[in-house]
Amino acid sequence: MHKLERAVQSGRHWGLFVGAVAIIGLVWIWMSAMPVAGNALTESPRPDFLAPDFTLVNLEGEPVTLSDLRGQVVMVNLWASWCPPCRAEMPAIEAIYQANKDKGLEVLAVNTTYQDSPNGAAQFASEYNLTFPILLDLDGAVSKRYQLRALPTTFFIDKQGVISAVVPGGPMSESLIQSKIADLLAEEF
Amino acid sequence: MFPLFQIGPLALRVPGFFLIVGLMAGITLTESEAKREGVDPNPLNNLALLSMLAGLVGARLVYVIRYLDTFLANPLTMFSINPNTLDVRAGILIALITAVAYGVWNKLPLRPTLDLFTPTFALSAIGLGLSTLASGNAYGSPTDLPWAIYLWDANRHPTQIYYTLWALFAFVVWWSIRKGDYFAGFRFLVWLTLTAAGALFIDAFRGDSVLLAGGVRQEQIIALAVMLFGLWLMRQWGRVDGNADTGGDVDVEAVAA
């Protein structure tokens, strides 16, 4: 390293060295340029990817498909009735839903029924007066597809169906939820 | 990828844990290096602590200002301990400005201070690499290579591992020269240019690059600019020291010739 220091201090060939570095760097950047089409969106449960599509039944037994909601901002909230932070954040989600549903917000509350029960989910929805769709993940396929690691976990999805943010854990405050959907609601479809 | 580690009822956020461990280990090493070189470590510790605090508060403040109406409706939520309501870029910028302001205010010499903080930067870079490995951020582009990792629904370059290994290499280089008698700022600039060179090379394998015209990756342009700036600064600082050693007006090149 003392050789490098001496080269720096003497300045001999230093300009040549820096020039060579610049040329090699530019060539590497040019070689590794990515075709814009290479950035095409694929499905995966993380920001900047398309939200993996699913169809689940609601408490009334009717199927609900995520991709049918394109054009709306969607919050997918994975929860269980026995999970304290899930219970704590549901009133905030309901309040935000009421304030924004006419502006294009939809909430899909996916109950992790494989570790809960349809009755438990229904009782919970009734207890908290939840007015958004409660979906039942009976076999855990959606939880697995969304790589669920903490309850609750919420995915914020824009009008194009792209995930913009993921909030693992909870409880979320009204301010947090509103700040995550504000920009998405303002976007054009 | 392992973003959360459950310890009883507590869900530890592993990416944040790695970041904090890297940073704290770095500050500890900076302190021990300062003592070894006979420098008072207290101003350095204060600088680090103040910058971190300012960065954290600033990151929350900027986020709150962005969504002011929302937070004014529930003012107490401004103070909640939640990493999801931080503007990270603003926080980093505010931390840097605070560090510079503190350094200028306390007349800390720039180049020796940067040298002493190099282990903080170097270990933080390792922590950042491990953090992205845990979170799945900074992921690679799809590949069929045998060492690909399955992440985000594809076999990908393990760019997070590349970054971590390179950061480790840069740290080892710094470790090997930390006791040497070099001009002030040299050890920092060696680490900086090495790190930028690594980013320039590895970013070619990223799957989440910001693309400019022609598909050129923005991160690579920044890395090249940082590397060239580091090399230019190396010459400037080396020359200043060389001149000082020889009386100030004499060009070292001429002396050497």
Please describe the topology of this protein.
The complex is a heterodimer of chains A (189) and B (257).
Chain A: H1 2-10, H2 14-31, E1 55-58, E2 63-65, E3 73-79, H3 84-100, E4 105-111, H4 118-127, E5 134-136, H5 141-145, E6 153-157, E7 163-168, H6 174-186
Parallel strand pairs in A: 3-4, 4-5
Antiparallel strand pairs in A: 1-2, 1-5, 3-6, 6-7
Chain B: E1 4-7, E2 10-13, H1 14-36, H2 41-66, H3 68-73, H4 88-105, H5 110-135, E3 149-151, E4 154-156, H6 159-177, H7 186-202, H8 218-245, H9 252-256
Antiparallel strand pairs in B: 1-2, 3-4
Helix pairs in contact in B: 1-2, 1-5, 2-4, 5-6, 5-7, 6-7, 7-8
Q: In words, what does this structure look like?
A:
The complex is a heterodimer of chains A (189) and B (257). Chain A folds into two domains: 32 residues; 132 residues, Glutaredoxin (3-Layer(aba) Sandwich), CATH 3.40.30.10. Chain A is an alpha/beta fold and 189 residues long. A seven-stranded mixed β-sheet of chain A has the order 2-1-5-4-3-6-7, with helices on one face. Chain A starts with a helix and ends with a helix. Chain A has six helices and seven strands. Chain B is mainly alpha-helical and 257 residues long. Chain B has a domain of 137 residues. Chain B contains nine helices and four strands; from the N terminus they run E-E-H-H-H-H-H-E-E-H-H-H-H. Chain B has a two-stranded antiparallel ribbon. The longest helix of chain B is centred in the last third of the chain and has 28 residues. The C terminus of chain B is likely disordered.
